[in-house]
């Protein structure tokens, strides 16, 4: 199978660039599944039903989340009836205060299945439950359900945490793709697990959104915040819509990654 993973989609520029490229790429690249991190798709903060539906209509199969998953609270109600929007799986699991939605999904293809897991790191972020322990448990769960093709969106700030997690599960999952920083890294590669099985990895898939910006937001507001130290109301930028992500090839028979390459397109 061939999977396109798109880094954090920001606001209307992100949606526009997906609409412009993804339906065509599904055919020209022979994509089996398209997954996008959508934590910033609703005006830069969070995700709502309308923006989720817009992404689905542009050819996205599954939307992952992160620290901005709850910025639009109403998404909780949508998650309850549509499993195609995930939030990190390592939110606390307290029966008294259940967290809406799920952190995992299984995508069904014509003759293959892909397990997808969304996790969030804890370095320089709100510390959720241990993503290593929770992630390992979910990998075992996919294994016990005969799902050997597994992709993890590890949403985290620190490159060290993302690399450590990828090495921790190397050979047990098909791919670990980082998100959150909105900047694509140039370290895509295949990691070797203890048994020699290969796992595709990149520290960050990048941003799908407006590149004439500071991580998707208007430059002026960001500069003002740094110079004045006063809080600013961020507004999404619009210029230079770009699509960044990775295309990963996975051998359906054993779940091993065979290739990973970076994608960068501008409108
Ligand atoms: Fe983001
Ligand atoms: Fe984030």
Bound molecules: fe (ii) ion
Instruction: Determine the oligomeric state from the structure.
Output: single chain
Question: How many E-type strands?
Answer: 12
Q: Return residue spans where pLDDT drops below 50 for at least 5 consecutive residues.
A: none
Q: Tell me roughly what share of residues is in helical segments.
A: 25-40%
Number of individual domains: 1
| C-alpha geometry | globular
Descriptive account of the structure:
- The mean pLDDT is 97.
- This protein is globular.
- The strands form two sheets. Strands 1, 2, 3, 10, 11 and 12 form a six-stranded mixed sheet that branches. Strands 4-5-6-7-9-8 form a six-stranded mixed sheet, covered by helices on one side.
- 26% of the residues lie in helices and 25% in strands.
- It is built from six helices and twelve strands.
- The protein has one domain (2-266): 4-Layer Sandwich (Purple Acid Phosphatase, chain A, domain 2).
- With 267 residues, the protein is an alpha/beta fold.
- Bound molecules: fe (ii) ion (2 copies).
- One fe (ii) ion binds at residues 8, 39-40, 66, 68, 180, 182.
């Amino acid at each position: 199978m061939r999977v396109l993973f798109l880094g954090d989609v920001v606001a209307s520029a992100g949606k526009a660039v997906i609409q412009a490229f993804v339906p065509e790429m599904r055919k020209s690249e022979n994509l089996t599944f398209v997954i996008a991190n959508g934590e910033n798709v609703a005006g830069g903060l969070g995700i709502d039903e309308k923006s989720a539906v817009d992404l689905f209509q542009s050819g996205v199969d599954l939307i992952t989340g992160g620290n901005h998953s709850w910025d639009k609270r109403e998404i909780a109600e949508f998650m309850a009836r549509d499993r195609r929007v995930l939030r990190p799986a390592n939110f606390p699991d307290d029966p008294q205060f259940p967290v809406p939605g799920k952190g995992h999904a299984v995508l069904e293809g014509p003759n293959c299945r892909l397990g997808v897991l969304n996790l969030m790191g804890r370095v320089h972020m709100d510390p959720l439950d241990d993503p290593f322990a929770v992630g390992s448990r979910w990998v075992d769960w996919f294994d016990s359900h005969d799902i050997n093709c597994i992709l993890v969106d590890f949403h985290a700030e620190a490159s060290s945490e993302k690399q450590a997690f990828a090495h921790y599960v190397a050979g047990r999952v098909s791919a670990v793709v980082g998100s959150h920083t909105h900047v694509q890294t140039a370290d895509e590669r295949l990691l070797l697990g203890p048994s020699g099985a290969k796992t595709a990895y990149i520290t960050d898939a990048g941003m799908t959104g407006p590149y004439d910006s500071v991580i998707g937001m208007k430059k002026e507001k960001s500069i003002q915040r740094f110079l004045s130290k006063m809080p600013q109301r961020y507004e999404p930028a619009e210029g230079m819509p770009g699509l960044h992500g990775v295309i990963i090839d996975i051998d359906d028979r054993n779940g091993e990654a065979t290739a990973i390459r970076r994608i960068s397109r501008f409108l």
